[in-house]
Amino acid sequence: MPDTATTDADPDSGREQRIGELEAENERLRKIRDALIVRVESGSAHKPEPYAVFEHSVVLAEQVRERTEALNQTMDELKGSNKALNRAREEAETTRQRLVDAIESIADGFVLFDRRHRLIQCNTRFRSYWKHSGLDVPPAGTSIAEVKERAVSSGLVVEEHANASSEGSVFLLSNGRWVQMTERPTREGGLVVLYSDITDVKNSEMARRIKALEESERWIRVVTDHVPALIAYVGADMTVQFCNKVYEAWYGRDGESPLGKHLQDVHQAELYWRLMPHVQRVLKGNSVNFEFEETNDTGDTRYMLRAYVPNVDTEGQVTGFFVLIRDITDRRKTALALEQAYDDLERRVKERTAALTGLNSQLRQEIDERAAVEARLRDAKMDAERANLSKTKFLAAVSHDLLQPLNAARLFTSALLEHSFGPKAEGLVRSVSTSLDDVENLLGTLVDISKLDAGVIKPDIMAFDLRDLLNNIAREFRQMALAEGLTLDFVPSSAIVESDSQLLARILRNFLTNAIRYTGAGRILLGCRRRRDHVLLQVWDTGPGIPQDKLTEIFQEFKRIRPAGSQPDKGLGLGLAIVDKISRMLGHEVTVSSIEGKGSVFSVKVPVGRLQPKRRVQGETPAVSHDSGLGGARIWVIDNDHAICQGMQTLLEGWDCQVISAVSLEDLERQLDPASSQVDLILADYHLDNDENGVDVVANINGRRHCPAPVVMITANYTNELKQHIRELGYVLMNKPVKPLKLRSALNHLLRG
Questions:
Q1: What mean pLDDT comes out for the span 714-739?
Q2: Which region, left, alpha or beta, applies to residue 327 given φ > 0 means left and ψ of -120 to 50 means alpha?
Q3: Which of 444, 488, 578, 652 sits CB 3.0–4.6 Å from 657 for a disulfide?
Q4: Alpha-carbon distance 706 to 361, whole Å?
Q5: Residue 605's pLDDT band (boundaries 50, 70, 90)?
Q6: Distance of CA 599 to the CA centre of its chain
Q7: Which terms are listed as keywords in the entry (predicted)?
Q8: CB distance 555 to 534 below 8 Å
Q9: What percent of the chain has pLDDT over 70?
Q10: In this structure, are residues 665 and 701 in contact, taking their beta carbons and an 8 Å threshold?
């Protein structure tokens, strides 16, 4: 558009008008002055008195002089104003020229609008946008709306993009350049508009986008080319716009790529018309899955599974669809083969069924016969199991009654051994004692097996010190070993283990019993080995050893491995069977190793434990100390069996004890006053008559006394509940049949405190 730059003409024109008016006024006054002078000089007819005339002329002359001076002063002022005006005009022109030069030096297009948004001034760069497109530049006074409308309608602006993140709109001009429009308000309310050329930025951004798209396309092509499926994208115009190598290899005709071709040119006519109904469905926005057989140009026939997925834009219009084709020829052949095989198998099954139908009737008859036999066998097995369980429960239940007379006989024979009747009588007594030992061992073993099988015995697991247990067992079996001409070595230990002390002692006793029984000469060792988290309790012997193929057999019931030439023993072969049952119950591993001719070692693995702090039983008082063993000890014996009372009294009196025996609390009260009579220890049986028990009787007695007496509770009850209850009361528990040596050791321990 033309240069519409204007000058500041409005102030200059006002000054020139003012100067013109002053000059006209000055000329008018000059004319008045001249006219007055002429009138005074020429007006003789009307002249006044000479003095008056002179006076009047003087006045007029003075007025003219004043007017002339005022006019001259005004003229001087006007001249000064003209000079200042000229200087201002020159400065304004210089400033205007500088402004024009500055605007022209701006690399961006510059347009200035007044407060009414009318075009005032623009630079060469803005005019070049219009001239390059062969358009007239908008003249001065054109509104900003008209400028925008003319730029769009004339084709100067090809595209407009409004970006909220940028300062203004971005335009693509007809010359291919990109400009960004930025608007700034002026102080007077006008508007400055800058058009910045951002073509290079746009080109750089476009290059980056093109590079990213090319990289993305490369990766997509790499991925799709390695997928064992035909992948393509078809536009809404039915042309193939993308495809992978597998698609190109299958549908490429004469080595030409199907890219850019219409589907009608890609597929054979027959296949194309078969595909068209599915193509029309996907172009309506529906996903399509179908399969059928097709043949390519090389004559290769494959069975294809096709999936068409529509590509929908933001306005809901379908712009094309994705194609995924998988070759399922092998799967189809496999399915057909399986179907054929199924048909063949079904036919063969029918033939076999017809052949087996005749056999079924025979088999059914045999099955019925076998079922009847199995039913009879099952009934017989159930009867045997019931009889065995009944036997087991019976033996477990009657153990107390079975052990009562044996316990009494044991006490009597032990009492007899304390007296001297001559060698012959002592031999008879020892023979009776030995026979009782055999009966006790056999009966105890049978009862133990029965109780283990019946589940009567329950382990009472707790932490305890091995010192007392090993010392007592060693003391008990050292005499037995000496009697057989053997040496029993013992390595004491104070290890703390977690187990049932009585059941663990039973395992060790059975180990030692077997070692003494089968070792003809030599020595036996009892000790333990400490490990990180367990203790290995072991019994070594120098016996004949056990064959390797018999090491597991010895733990079976009624199995005994007797070396050749050895004397027969009276055992039942249940000792190690009991060990096996107890170890399984406790969760302790039992192992055995042996070398024939050298000896064997039996081991039981017991976990390490931790002792709990002991609680002192309320009212517990130290026992009376007797310096001379049991001599003079005052003991009360309470048992409902008169024979046991008499036997226990005889045995204890043989140990120099003062014994009072009673079958009940009433019987004891008839003989003495339980509250005030002196007593050092109470020996009570747990099972008494009339639904009484020894715990309640002892509690009644000690409840009356100022100082409770120590208690030894004797019972054939092996339940954990009773064992725990007696332990909590602070009593000593002994199981029947009572061994005199063990009883004396316990009494000595209690009486000595």
A1: 81
A2: beta
A3: 652
A4: 89
A5: very high
A6: 55
A7: Coiled coil, Kinase, Phosphoprotein, Transferase
A8: no
A9: 78
A10: yes
Name the CATH superfamily housing domain 634-752: Response regulator (3.40.50.2300)
pLDDT in tens, 291-345: 878 777 667 778 888 888 898 888 888 889 988 888 887 777 887 888 888 888 8
Phi, psi of 313 (to 5 degrees): -85, -175
Which part of the chain is CATH 3.30.450.20?
206-331
Q: How far apart are CA 191 and CA 144, in angstroms?
A: 9
Q: Which two tokens stand for residue 411?
A: 């006490």
Phi/psi of residue 101, nearest 5 degrees = -65, -40
CATH architecture, domain 206-331: 2-Layer Sandwich (3.30)
Q: Is the pLDDT of residue 5 over 70?
A: no
Which whole number is the average pLDDT over 472-491?
87
Number of neighbours of residue 151 by Cβ within 10 angstroms: 20
- Type of residue numbered 503: L
Cα separation, 487 vs 237, whole angstroms: 110
- Chain region(s) in the chain for CATH 3.40.50.2300: 634-752
How far, in Å, CA of 463 to CA of 610, rounded?
Answer: 6
Query: How high is the pLDDT of residue 7?
Result: 40
Contact of 588 with 517, CB cutoff 8 Å? no
Could you tell me if 557 and 571 are in contact, meaning their C-beta atoms sit under 8 angstroms apart? no
Domain with CATH 3.30.565.10 in the chain: 458-561+571-607
Which DSSP category does 164 fall into? T
Query: Taking the domain 106-198, which CATH number applies?
Result: 3.30.450
Among 62-66, 74-78, 258-262, 453-457, which stretch is predicted with the lowest mean pLDDT?
A: 453-457
Residue type for position 443: L
Of 588, 452, 461, 584, the residue nearest 528 (C-alpha): 588
Taking the CB of residue 695, how many other CB atoms lie within 10 A of it? 19
Phi, psi of 354 (to 5 degrees): -65, -35
157: left (phi over 0), alpha (psi -120 to 50) or beta: beta
Q: Are 104 and 94 in contact (CB under 8 A)?
A: no
Question: 204 pLDDT exceeds 90?
Answer: no
Task: Tell how strand 534-541 and strand 732-735 pair up.
Answer: unpaired
Pick the CATH number of 458-561+571-607 from 3.10.180.10, 3.40.640.10, 3.20.20.70, 3.30.565.10: 3.30.565.10
Other beta carbons less than 10 A from residue 71's beta carbon: 18
Residues 6+ apart with CB under 8 A from 356: none
From the CB of residue 230, how many other CB atoms can be counted at a distance below 10 Å?
22
Which tens digit of pLDDT belongs to each residue from 358-395?
788 788 888 888 888 888 888 887 877 676 666 655 65
Please provide the average confidence, as pLDDT, over all residues in the chain.
Answer: 78
Please choose, from the candidates 591, 487, 482, the residue with its C-alpha nearest in 3D space to the C-alpha of residue 541: 487
Q: State the helix-helix crossing angle for 399-417 and 423-454, rounded to 10 degrees.
A: 160
